Amino acid sequence: MERDESGRTSSRKFSTVAKSFALVVLGAGATAGGQALNALVQPSDSTPVAEAFWDSGFLGRESQAQPESAPAGASQGVSLAMAPAMSNPNAIADIVRQVGPSVVRIDAARTVQTNLPPMLQDPFFRQFFGDNLPAPRSEQVRRGVGSGFITSADGQIITNAHVVAGADQVNVTLKDGRTFTGRVMGADSVTDIAVIKIEASDLPTVSVSNSDQIQPGEWAIAIGNPLGLDSTVTAGIISATGRTSREIGVPDKRVDFIQTDAAINPGNSGGPLLNLRGEVIGVNTAIIQGAQGIGFAIPMNTVQRISAQLIETGQVEHAYLGIQMVTLSAETKANINNSPNRPFTVADESGVLIVRVVPNSPAAQGGLREGDVIVAVAGQPVSDSAAVQQAVERSRVGQDLAITLRRGGREQTIAVRPGNVPTR
Known about the structure:
alpha+beta; Pdz3 Domain; Thrombin, subunit H; seven-stranded antiparallel beta sheet; about 20% helix
């Protein structure tokens, strides 16, 4: 879930503020965002946004860039966290024995069509190569490994959507060695959550915790199959909570991530992040490419909400307005009004400014305009764009949502009916 970061550093220019605009329509952010920025001012700050590396679960694809070698003595993906101070020195081992049987390996395979370059498909050129060239069009099977965990004794398993995306075949292997064919009950690319079902009974299940209650500095344990190494355990701490999708470089997602320094690698995707009570607090999902000790997990409260919908209907609806916005402050107001390319003048120093309304979106159809300043959603005051996004996410697709705003110095309330977030 995106949020703007305006107002965090007093010395920032408007070009930096413009990069912080938050878009409620996630999944179409690249197009809408770029147009809105150009409408205001061309950014001059070239500071890159962090890029998250997503383990797609499939091998045989183009190789991902690897981080440069670290200096001698540097940690290579090993958590430097000290052992937790506790009366039981084997607490983590006890947790692993308790939860390990509920963690599974997921092998996914998909068939892709491959084509030769157009030149080599030409009979004139192919005559020089004889039988050394494959057929102009052929099929290739790509395989990959991910992780998951069992949530019901009859075989419901949670993993990441990108682990099973496009898979023709999904095999699930339990810690005791048994293998089952998995059926994808549903997958949501917006939150990267999927639910798999295997035909089994009396399976060991995990316990879950309220992820809203976790705090930075608490201990965290990750279990999964990184790089195909089954049943790997790593430990560290919760480094931060509420990391936005924008901050970690995946603006098409709607998740506030948990950040941890417990080692997470490709293949860990879909595995559980645990607390010291052995409860699942998140689903391990992504790492920052080229960084060490920076991993991200989807909070379990989000996972439970999404997985419940996937189990019930096989799909998830995400309320969507179609606006791009920025949190106002005195600095933001001054930066916008001092820009020669401004599309409007800002009179307010608080509230959430609508920078762009996506054409034909629910916001456009409901009467929202560029330059409107949102002060409340569903009767609840909002002070930043994150609060607006959260209120929209809590709303229902197709049901009126009251947006209170200031326009031309006057306050008014407009009913907007959110739609379902567009898919690419």
